[in-house]
Amino acid sequence: MTHSTSIAILGGTGPQGKGLALRFATAGIPVVIGSRSQESAEQCAQELNRQLAVGSAEIIGLENNAAVEHAGDIVILSVPYAAHNATLDAIKTQLTGKILVDIVVPLAPGNPKKMAMPEQGSATEEAQALLGDAIPVVGALHNVSATTLNDLSRPINCDILVCGNQLDAKKKVMAVINQLDVKTYNAGLAESARCIEAMTSILIRLNISKDVPFSHAGITIAPPIH
Q1: Fewer CB within 10 Å: N-end or C-end of the chain?
Q2: 3 has a pLDDT exceeding 60
Q3: Which domain of life does the UniProt lineage start with (predicted)?
């Protein structure tokens, strides 16, 4: 499917952002990756485009604010948690009329096996409080391994739990993510992000454990076996 509307991925030069850019572009969705540095964003976009198969959508690179302006309705925030609030402050005025998809996980500094949740309860709720109710925030894509996303030879081995306070915004985000050949589930209001984000630290613990015979695991919602 070919799409005329780009999605923006802020923090698109990081591992998670790069992997998402590759996956969305492969699905035919144009992507603009944002960075604090226009030059870094452009260089990263060129590298990613070289990895794409013929027929994929284009990835371009812009400075964060320009990336938000260039996007259609969806802007994905994929920055380290330390840059979460500052990035939102910098782009807040450009987000009017758009949906922010917050995939940031507030891991404890120096210990990815622990969480350091903000006062609001989760990064998703913190973003909603900072931006105000007029800008819908949707939490999603927290539990997918960056390594998995960047390996286009493999399918994404993770179901996607989506939460947020505005149903229409969630449905739009789920429809876009579904095009990555994954299953999405409406996991409720933004407060559900407290559980969804925290699950990431558990996955990290398992994936680095010597007692577990695999890495880069995701989560799946298992229907009953008949």
Answers
A1: C
A2: no
A3: Bacteria
